């Protein structure tokens, strides 16, 4: 892989208008990860399901694209599924908000994805079949119509990327105290966070138990997550327009929906991950380790 990696990364970096030192950094940190996944694939006949966990703004999408390119050069078909594409549509979340808790109108937390559809998609891909994958438009905060879903597969490696992929539920006692202003003011009785935690410990736990390997992009702190997610929204605003776009204050409130699980994941997942990439506050990988 090393022989062609430099050219692949240079072309990708230029196409994506990434910093000048990106190819060298990616060669140092991401080529070894691609080699690791290649060895995992060669050791098993069936398609692999690899989870990629990373808090908001950590660079999951870019990393998945790099892995797709590097492994394609080794004749390995890699397909990325984003947990975000399986969000419930706005109408379904509004109904959930009426039935369970108003905060569930906001996409993101466990309970706001269509996990049954995701499981069905994964089963088809692991069986070596093609399937139709939904797409979620964040600028409109809604799922695209089925006519705009993407036909894809089969694949040798399926990457499932998402901010809570691999996350584990907290204890009941950990839910007692709010972790931020959102929980204190809008979930004073704890009904929302209990529902989210129950879903994480039920159908999400079943989904994540099917992962063959878990890769984690570990953010250095919660403050960095807010900064990176804000920059992510600025980039989206430059490229698109729609009612789902947020100003900085809205992003800060939005990220509070994710804070509890993000904090718990930063504390628990590094020891559970098969491959860990530790990020610095400058958004660059500082170290890596794997089992």
Low-confidence stretches: none
Trace the largest sheet across and list its strands. Answer: 2-7-1-8-9-10
The separation of the N and C termini measures: 21 Å
Radius of gyration: 19 Å
Helical stretch tally: 10
Along the chain, the helix and strand elements come as HHEHEHHEEEEEHHHEHHEE
Sheet with most strands: 6 strands, mixed
Q: Which class best fits the helix and strand makeup?
A: alpha/beta
Give the amount of beta strand, in percent.
Answer: 15-25%
Question: Helicity, in percent?
Answer: 40-55%
The average pLDDT is 93
Shape, per Cα inertia axes: globular
Q: Please provide the count of β strands.
A: 10
Describe the model:
The chain has a 6-stranded mixed beta sheet, sandwiched between helices. Strands 3-6 form a two-stranded antiparallel sheet. It has 10 helices and 10 strands. The protein is of the alpha/beta class. It has helices at residues 2-16, 22-43, 60-72, 90-99, 115-126, 181-186, 191-201, 203-209, 222-239, 248-268, and strands at 48-54, 78-82, 131-133, 136-137, 142-143, 150-152, 157-162, 213-218, 275-279, 285-290. The protein starts with a helix and ends with a strand.
What is shown here, in short?
It contains 10 helices and 10 strands. The chain has helices spanning 2-16, 22-43, 60-72, 90-99, 115-126, 181-186, 191-201, 203-209, 222-239, 248-268, and strands at 48-54, 78-82, 131-133, 136-137, 142-143, 150-152, 157-162, 213-218, 275-279, 285-290.
């Amino acid at each position: 892989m090393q022989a062609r990696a430099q050219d692949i990364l240079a072309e990708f970096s230029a196409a994506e208008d990434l910093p000048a030192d990106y190819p060298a950094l990616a060669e140092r940190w991401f080529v070894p990860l691609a080699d690791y996944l290649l060895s995992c694939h060669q050791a098993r006949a069936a398609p692999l399901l690899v989870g990629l966990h990373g808090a908001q703004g950590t660079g999951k999408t870019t990393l998945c694209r790099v892995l797709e390119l590097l492994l394609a050069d080794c004749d390995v078909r890699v397909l990325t599924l984003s947990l975000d594409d399986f969000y419930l549509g706005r109408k379904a979340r509004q109904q959930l908000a009426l039935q369970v808790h108003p905060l569930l109108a906001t996409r993101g937390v466990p309970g706001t994805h269509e996990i049954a559809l995701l499981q069905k998609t994964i089963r088809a891909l692991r069986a070596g079949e093609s399937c139709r994958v939904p797409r979620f438009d964040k600028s409109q905060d809604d799922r695209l119509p089925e006519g705009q879903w993407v036909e894809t597969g089969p694949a040798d490696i399926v990457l499932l990327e998402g901010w809570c992929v691999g996350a584990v539920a907290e204890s009941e006692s950990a839910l007692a105290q709010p972790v931020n202003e959102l929980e204190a003011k809008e979930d004073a009785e704890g009904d929302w966070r209990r529902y989210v935690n129950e879903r994480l410990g039920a159908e999400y736990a079943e989904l994540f138990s099917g992962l063959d390997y878990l890769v984690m992009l570990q953010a250095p702190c919660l403050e960095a997550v807010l900064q990176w997610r804000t920059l992510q929204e600025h980039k989206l605003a430059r490229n698109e327009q729609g009612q789902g776009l947020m100003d900085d204050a809205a992003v800060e409130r939005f990220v509070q929906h994710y804070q509890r699980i993000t904090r718990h994941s930063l504390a628990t997942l590094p020891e559970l991950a098969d491959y860990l990439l530790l990020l610095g506050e400058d958004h660059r990988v500082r170290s890596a380790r794997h089992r």
